[in-house]
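Sequence of DUF1206 domain-containing protein (Antrihabitans spumae).
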Amino acid sequence: MPTMNAQASDIVQNPWFERLARCGHIVSGVLHLLIGYIAIRIALGKGGSADQSGAFRELTSKTGGTLVMWVVMVAFIALAVWRLVEGAVGKRSESKEVSVMDRVKAFSLAVLYFAFAWSAFTFAKGAGKSSSEQNAGLTARAMESGIGKLAIVVVAGVFIGVGGYHCYKGISKKFMKDLKSPGTVEETLGTIGYTAKGLALIGIGVLFIAALFTEDPGKATGMDGALKTLREQAFGTILLVVAGFGIAVYGLYSFVMAKSAKM
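Predicted 3D structure, token representation.
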């Protein structure tokens, strides 16, 4: 009787499933391009939410948007399942034993992609909500207890840690080993994209800490809040445009991942 690991390996051996999982990277790329576009639009004085819910809202507002959301949901589920299998048995393209850190990264990404899939499902059903409002609401409830406050610190630490790792991966070019045959274009997109996204994630973590110390849950509004905080600083318009451009570049790098990532 095949073991669970063997059954998981059989899943990723299916070429059609791999193609579907790679579509998840394409969807991620589109979302980051939209978030970057919205951030630049906000910098120029127009409205919008520069986060995943804002990107979903942009997509659903177009003709055929509901159908697109169903496609987005399926693509993210496929990518999430792929990451779960990767965390269990490792990458199909590599024969080395899976380290604890590799498992943690793979399972964390799986949780993130499942969350994106759920959000896409709610928008497809016409019940999508603002990520900023949900984050602020959850933070407000967490502040009502000591355990909740500790959870906020943990969440902030995770964002700062993951953001720091993104910056490190971008600056050190560690992402190059994730690609089959990286070149200059891939190196440039990855360096800019990972660093920009890392800084944005660090900003989210800092805002969670600020919300806790000021007892103002309205500060904990996720990516949208982190980017809009930039606009309030000196040279804020320029900073927000640069940040939006960097996140859009990460979107372009996601297309590279769709084509060339080792899976």
